[in-house]
């Protein structure tokens, strides 16, 4: 039915055909859309969750999608430089005979939030709160935040999580039929450009050119490699 906590409850009745609660998915189950709230920076997410906590909707199930730079608590990976993603993947795959014990404790975090919600103690939280709790429970905040997305009504994330198709796919974000809110949307153009742009150095181009030279000179898929080599030559 209509919400009772705000002025829209006194508005016109929603047409039955357009009511979100009337949509069906997977047989008889009602489909309730999630709200994906995109912001420009992580700092803005902190501000929004702080404001959410002050409203009547602070107990609504939520999550915050963020990179490993903000959420990883593994002592070795988190203290490394720019290769946190690669190191995390290596630990998950057990490449060097080691695995991430924090990843195996993900359920501790998600169950903790479920327990709080069941006892109506749930409150809007910030990514720092989740990381702090993750350290206490020795559980990965990065994967816990993704797991919490399943039952969340509101999902906060940076713009590129919604705009970049590769990130959407890797984070298993499906926006079909969902509600998308973009805060300060005048920044979207720049973010969209970044999502389809890629930067390379001259040294990288020269290295690629040398490898492609080798491929072409040794008759390895010449038709594929010659056009790529031509691009590298033209750019350098």
From TrEMBL:
Leader sequence residues: none
Encoding gene, per UniProt annotation: Brip1
Domain Helicase ATP-binding: 1-232
Protein's name in the database: FANCJ protein
Gene Ontology terms describing biological process: double-strand break repair involved in meiotic recombination; nucleotide-excision repair
Gene3D superfamilies: P-loop containing nucleotide triphosphate hydrolases
GO molecular function: ATP binding; DNA binding; DNA helicase activity; hydrolase activity, acting on acid anhydrides, in phosphorus-containing anhydrides
Tagged with keyword Ribosomal protein: no
One CC-aspect GO term: nucleus
Gene source species: Calonectris borealis
A Pfam family recorded for this sequence: DEAD_2
Keyword Zinc in record: no
The entry's keywords: ATP-binding, Hydrolase, Nucleotide-binding
């Amino acid at each position: 039915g209509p919400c009772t906590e705000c002025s829209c409850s006194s508005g016109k009745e929603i047409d039955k055909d357009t009511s979100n609660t009337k949509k069906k998915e997977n047989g008889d189950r009602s489909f309730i859309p999630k709200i994906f709230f995109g912001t420009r920076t992580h700092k803005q997410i902190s501000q929004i969750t702080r404001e959410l906590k002050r409203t009547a909707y602070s107990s609504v199930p939520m999550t915050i999608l963020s990179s490993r730079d903000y959420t990883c608590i593994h002592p070795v990976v988190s203290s490394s430089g720019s290769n946190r993603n690669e190191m995390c993947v290596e630990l998950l795959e057990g490449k060097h005979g080691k695995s991430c014990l924090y990843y195996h404790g993900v359920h501790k975090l998600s169950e903790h939030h479920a327990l709080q919600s069941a006892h109506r103690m749930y409150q809007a939280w910030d990514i720092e709160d989740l990381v702090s709790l993750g350290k206490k429970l020795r559980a990965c905040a990065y994967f816990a935040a993704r797991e919490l997305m399943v039952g969340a009504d509101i999902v906060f994330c940076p713009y590129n999580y919604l705009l970049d198709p590769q990130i959407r796919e890797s984070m298993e974000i499906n926006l079909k039929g969902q509600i998308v809110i973009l805060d300060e949307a005048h920044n979207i153009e720049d973010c969209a450009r970044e999502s389809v742009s890629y930067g390379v150095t001259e040294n990288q181009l020269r290295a690629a050119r040398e490898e492609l030279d080798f491929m072409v000179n040794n008759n390895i898929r010449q038709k594929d490699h010659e056009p790529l080599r031509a691009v590298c030559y033209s750019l350098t």
